[in-house]
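Throughout our pipeline, every protein is held as a single compact record rather than as scattered files. Nothing more is needed to write down the fold, since each code stands for a local backbone conformation. For reference, a complete record is included directly beneath this paragraph.
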Amino acid sequence: MIRFFFYDDIFVNNFNRSFFYSLEFFCPDEKSVIQLSDNQFEEMQQLFHTLRTIADKPEAVSGILYSILIISQKYFWNLHRGNKKELCGKEHTVVKFRELVSKNFAENKDVAFYAERLHISPKYLSEILVEYTGLSAKKWIEFHVMQEAKYLLSFRDMSVKEVAFQLGYTDTSHFSRAFRSYDGQLPTEFKNTVGNPKCSSSRI
């Protein structure tokens, strides 16, 4: 059995509080138990093993925690939503949007890009997401971009310019403004405050 226990400071040190509220297994009216298959349990064990080995690197820990939570959300959907013959239209939109964002957030940050692929208007897409997750489409895209930015900035072998380029920004100053608007500090300031591991920047 795997149990998650979170203290309040995880919101401050790792993630935006809104992100946790968007995870359905944290909602008070939802079941918080997820039955794992053998393969799923093994996948989680590997992630927790990795988490233990990097426990002294806060920003790297954030990346693994993010993976654990997103995978847990996927398992939750498969278990509790999968009991239905099919998702309702809005639930299906939420799932497809999250899949699209996870694959395209670096190259496409415009809500219209995702709305077009889901065959709905940007306004209606955001209305659905706010209803089901508490976050607008723009906030979801921003969250993915900035969490990846923090992860990449934690490596001292990557410059701010390289991080900006990898995240699809052609102008470093634009990336810096976006990061400061999200986190309250410049990428260079954030980079100077983290442990900055030397290992490769490829995500685990």
Summary: Residues 37-85 form one domain.
